[in-house]
Amino acid sequence: MPRYVALLRGVSPMNCQMPVLKRCLEEAGFTDVKTLLSSGNVAFSTARSASLPALQKRVEKAMRDGAGYDFLTVVRSTAHLRRLLDADPFAAFKLPAGGKRVLTFLREPEAVHDVELPISRDEASILQRTAGEVLCVYVPNAKGPAFMQLLEKTFGKAITTRTWDTVARCARA
């Protein structure tokens, strides 16, 4: 049975309870549901064959119907995440000392225009875009995650971002 991860945009422990989120997906027919961390990562399996956009809408409907949650959702298969990790696309770049690797997921990759990369600002860089993901690196500083504003300006708000370590945890779920 295929395994997927729903990556929810804008989730924090203050606006979404993980047990409630888990229950919503289970009630919608997803199986082996597991929340990861407290920041909107939910692994699940489904016997029903469906496209990623259809799964995204199904997860969003489950949250809305079950708890009134309204979070933009990006779904990727765990197999896809494992392939990304195995390929280690960051290896092609010279990363700054102390740089944090970040992967941004595009909800509708075909709707996002191509841009000339890399783009850098305030010790943050958007390095490369693959079909549905964007590689970023930033050095933590007092200004905070300036790359988030840069990402939204470049790719719009139908995105969600995870650290490389979080992507690895999701791939293993």
Count of helix runs: 5
Which CATH architecture of the largest domain would you pick?
2-Layer Sandwich
Report, as a whole number of angstroms, the end-to-end distance.
14 Å
* Largest sheet: spatial strand order: 6-7-8-5-9
- The CATH class of the largest domain: Alpha Beta
As for the number of domains, it is 2
What Rg do the Cα atoms give?
A: 16 Å
How large is the share of residues in beta strands? 25-35%
Number of strands: 9
Which spans of ≥5 residues are poorly predicted at pLDDT below 50?
A: none
**Helix-residue proportion:** 25-40%
User: Main β-sheet, in a few words?
Assistant: 5 strands, antiparallel
Q: What do the pLDDT scores average to?
A: 91
Would you tell me the structural class of the helices and strands?
Answer: alpha+beta
What's the shape?
globular
Order of helices and strands: EHEEHEHEEEEHEH
CATH fold title of the largest domain: Alpha-Beta Plaits
InterPro entries: DUF1697
Explain what this protein looks like in three dimensions.
The mean pLDDT is 91. Helices cover 32% and strands 28% of the residues. It has 2 domains: 3-80, 2-Layer Sandwich (Alpha-Beta Plaits), CATH 3.30.70; 87-164. The strands form 2 sheets. Strands 6-7-8-5-9 form a 5-stranded antiparallel β-sheet. The protein has helices at residues 18-27, 52-67, 78-87, 146-155, 164-172; strands at residues 3-8, 31-36, 41-45, 73-77, 100-106, 119-121, 124-129, 133-138, 159-163. It starts with a strand and ends with a helix. By secondary structure, it is an alpha+beta fold. A hairpin with a 2-residue loop joins β6 and β7. The protein has 5 helices and 9 strands. α1 crosses α2 and α3 crosses α5 (164-172). InterPro entries: DUF1697. It holds the Pfam family DUF1697.
